[in-house]
Amino acid sequence: MTDPTHKREPKYLLQRAEQFILPRLASRLPAWVTPDHLTSLGLLSCLLIGLCYALSGQYKWLLLLTVPLWLLNWLGDSLDGTLARIRRIQRPFYGYYLDHMVDMLSAAAVCIGIGLSPYVNMGFAITLLLLYYLLSINVFLETLVLRKFQYGYGFIGPTEVRILLSGLAIFIYFRSEPTIHLLDFKIGIGDIAAASAALFMIISLVYRIISNLDYLGKIDPPNVVKH
Question: Measured between alpha carbons, how far is residue 201 from residues 151, 163, 198, 207 in Å?
């Protein structure tokens, strides 16, 4: 759900597959299902995912439960706007605000849950959350200044992140988590994955900022005072 005056430019690996699947799924939903129902499903599933991560130290099987929950999150988060567009019941400003507030709350629930698990240090988890917020702020600014809504970074979008997190949860569940002892710290595969993700996010953000400033500098050059 975005302002129709903004050009949607999703750029991620599974973009074409989603553009084929989502309208067909949305058209088959019963009439009583509304976009707000789907948005609520997306938020609720993320709250449960965060809880599963947080309790996975005592109940490791909860890692596996996150996989179907990520599927539900994908359905809720991806279908709400699609359903509104198919039924022509878009609420551009309401939907834009609601979607992104839900995204912020969902990210907080997931990252805090990951940090409370025994597999990722809380410092790494909070770093990921802050970087996610910075990436999101950049998207919001692009939407305002460039009039485009591009929510993928480096061909990685929300769907790819869900798949990666699901795969990591399955891997950790079925294998004893390998750890590396570095000085007085124990670093597990979850920490390595989080650090790698943080590095990718930083590089992607810096690249987008430089690209945006280069483009904006050309269309909005500095005023030169002539003496």
Answer: 13, 17, 5, 10
Q: What is the CATH number of the domain that holds 97?
A: 1.20.120.1760
Burial class from Cβ neighbours inside 10 Å (0-12, 13-18, 19+) for residue 121 reads buried
94 phi and psi angles, rounded to 5 deg: -60, -50
How many domains would you assign to the chain? 1
CA 147/CA 3 separation, integer angstroms: 9
Residue 70 to residue 105: CA distance in whole angstroms? 15
Check residue 191 and report its DSSP letter: H
List the domain range (segments joined by +) for residue 18: 7-219
Query: Which amino acid belongs to residue 76?
Result: G
Which segments of the chain does DSSP mark as H helices, in order? 15-27, 35-55, 62-87, 92-116, 122-145, 158-174, 189-219
224 φψ region: left (φ > 0), alpha (ψ -120 to 50), beta (else): beta
pTM for this model (two decimals): 0.89
Contacts of 218 (CB under 8 A, 6+ apart): none
- Confidence category of residue 4, pLDDT binned at 50, 70, 90: very low
Tell me the per-residue pLDDT of 133-163, one tens digit each, with 9 for 90 and over: 999 999 999 999 988 888 788 789 899 999 9
> Do 53 and 110 contact (CB within 8 A), yes or no?
yes
